[in-house]
Amino acid sequence: MEAVNNLRNKLSVSRFSKITGIQRSYIYYNRKITVKHKKSRIPENTINRVLEISGKRVTYGHRRIWAVLRNEGVKINIKTVRRIIKSRNLQLPYAKHKNRTNKRNLTKPSDINQLWETDIHYVSTHNGMYYLMAVKDCFSKRWISYNFSRTCTAKDCVKPIEEAYAIRYSNSNLSNLVLRTDNGTQYIAKSFKDTVRLLNIKHEYIKKQTPEDNGDIESFHNSLKTDYIWQNDLESYEDAKELMEYAFNDYNNYRPHSSIGYLTPVEFEKQWNISEEFRNKFLEDRMKREERRLKSRKINISRRNESVSILH
């Protein structure tokens, strides 16, 4: 077989066909297979790195694994990553998106420090329940600050707001800042509202029983559970506190976010602050995504109406 392959490489297709009696169509077909096989060859160290990330980050699908590789400087197609994951049967189950309701006229940020969200998340350990009060920038997706406490009073909820303000105030304009919360007792307390007013932050409440209006912080809590909390057996407050410190750094500096081009929040803010070209491209891409979403939604509504009319 090796001798035949050597002969085929030295002769033209027609000459090789005449000598061997093999049809030219068969030769061309096998040539395509060989070329395709060579093109799809993936370096062993790249495959190993994909599997290493998948093993360490069990909640990461092929898109986030690809983003991690890209951010590390590895050039690889996202479809190649998916193929590697699929060949090892490591793909995640498809996550169905819940139907989204129409949001009322809420603030929509177009820059960093225009909209923050905060809420309380309950962290369960063997020794009891503790409370995480986090502040997130809804534009850059950065987890700005938090307070992890044994209690969740209005005073506890004020601390991460004051800390976030101190962190951002030094190098940012916060004159147009909006803070969005639900109507929990901590956030309607006089002490909390007085602090927000003193910092000259506009306080925006969502309607009752509409957690989707606080979607960024809700999404953050879901990521916190799946990527960090549920993967650890937390014995005590100290264990949970240590995990929150790790998660805070990892979420901001390592975890890719799809809504900001699979960059980390820290890298996104860095690029946003130094590059006008980056800002323009990001806003243009976001507008295109929104147009596609609205178009798709109109099509789905139209199809649903057609189905209803047929039934009637």
From TrEMBL:
A Pfam family: HTH_21
Integrase catalytic domain mapped to chain residues: 105-273
Listed SUPFAM superfamilies: Ribonuclease H-like
InterPro entries: HTH-like_dom, Integrase_cat-core, RNaseH-like_sf, RNaseH_sf, Transpos_IS3, Transposase_IS3/IS150/IS904
Name of this chain's protein: Integrase catalytic domain-containing protein
Source lineage: Archaea, Methanobacteriati, Thermoplasmatota, Thermoplasmata, Thermoplasmatales
NCBIfam families tied to this protein: transpos_IS3
Single GO molecular function: nucleic acid binding
GO terms, biological process: DNA integration
